[in-house]
Design goal:
This protein is an alpha/beta fold. It contains 10 helices and 10 strands. Helices cover about 45% and strands about 15% of the residues. The radius of gyration is 19 Å and the shape is globular. The longest helix has 21 residues, at about 145-165. Bound molecules: pyridoxal-5'-phosphate. Pyridoxal-5'-phosphate binds near residues 40, 41, 272 and 300.
Length: about 325
């Protein structure tokens, strides 16, 4: 049941950026270049789920996400290429056509729109019903859970390899943080490698600090299966640049996206990577961080860039 495209254990490249803010040295890890379904952190996580799906011989995948969800696009694509049915539960509020939602339909996934407060009972009922007729596999929204965390422990180890090869260390790692699974994976990697000299900073794309950190701590505990009270200082989830919510952005973010595309040829987006890159620069200025090695994790979401085009050219 193998198929082309999605190789397990793909490594992604790290390279320098032209960015010079506060005389720091900026690098980027290109998870946007993972070669399945436009890449991104959801593709890296999906590879881990895929192994389990194939091992369990599931014949249908059920997951959850909004109309612009990168996760749902990758999962719908994966289900199609594996020849499995795919059901996506989406909150009906704010449902909009996006490049991702169009592709999800193209991949043949069934989209079930329900009011947001009925999402979890809908999922339970669907799974209950399916269990009588087939072997459904549930993937939590965003690829949350230990498989998703594990995918980013791998990414952390790739970062370590790069450091050893190039004989230097990154003082900071910045990334866009949503459910926090990606960040939790990186922090687990940090804890397992006992690398406490560097800071991993998640720039929240929507959640407040309390909620965001709570979920990350829970994910780390779940993955490491131990008391993590000694490591709570590793969890830095910054909610100063959310601009009051998911998908909210401003001209400063649009300008940052334009700058990175024009100078480095890399397409960020307003919902995740552009917001995080902007947040990173603001954080660096605000905290007077200078002369450091800084790594930005590009978590992908390329189709969102095309949804953003309307705002980028005025
Ligand atoms: C989902 C997503 C994130 C957030 O990842 P989490 O693991 O949920 O924190 C960041 N960037 C992009 C492009 C995403 O699609």
């Amino acid at each position: 049941m193998d198929y082309a495209g999605m190789n397990t254990m793909q490594k992604t490249i790290i390279h320098k950026l032209s960015e010079k803010t506060n005389r720091n040295y900026f690098y980027i890890k290109r998870d946007d270049l993972i070669d399945f379904s436009f890449g991104g952190n959801k593709a890296r996580k999906a590879e881990k789920f895929k192994e389990d799906i194939v091992a369990k011989k599931a014949d249908a995948i059920v997951t959850y996400g909004s109309s612009e969800s990168n996760h749902c696009r990758v999962i719908a694509n994966m289900a199609r290429s594996l020849g499995l049915k795919c059901y996506i539960i989406s909150p009906e509020e704010k449902y909009e056509e996006t490049y991702n939602s169009k592709m999800i339909r193209m991949f043949g996934a069934r989209i079930i729109k329900v009011p947001i407060d009925e999402v979890s009972t809908t999922i339970d009922n669907l799974l209950e019903r399916f269990k009588k007729e087939c072997k459904p596999y549930f993937i939590p929204g965003g690829g949350h859970g230990n498989f998703g965390t594990d995918a980013y422990v791998d990414a952390y180890n790739e970062i370590k390899e790069y450091e050893v090869e190039h004989d230097f260390t990154f003082d900071y790692i910045f990334l866009a943080s949503g459910t926090g699974t990606t960040q939790a994976g990186l922090i687990c990697g940090q804890i397992l490698n006992k690398d406490f000299d560097r800071k991993i900073i998640g720039i929240s794309i929507a959640r407040n600090k309390e909620k965001g950190e709570g979920v990350i701590i829970e994910s780390i505990r779940d993955y490491l299966c131990k008391d993590i009270n000694d490591y709570l200082h590793c969890v830095n989830f910054n909610d100063e640049y959310t601009l009051s919510g998911y998908n909210k952005h401003n001209d400063k973010i649009l300008n940052v996206i334009k700058k990175v595309l024009l100078k480095d040829g890399i397409a960020l987006n307003t919902t995740y990577t552009g917001k995080a890159y902007y947040g990173m620069l603001e954080y660096i200025k605000k905290n007077n961080i200078m002369d450091k090695n800084i790594l930005f994790l590009n978590t992908g979401g390329l189709p969102l860039f095309f949804d953003d085009m309307k705002g980028l050219i005025k």
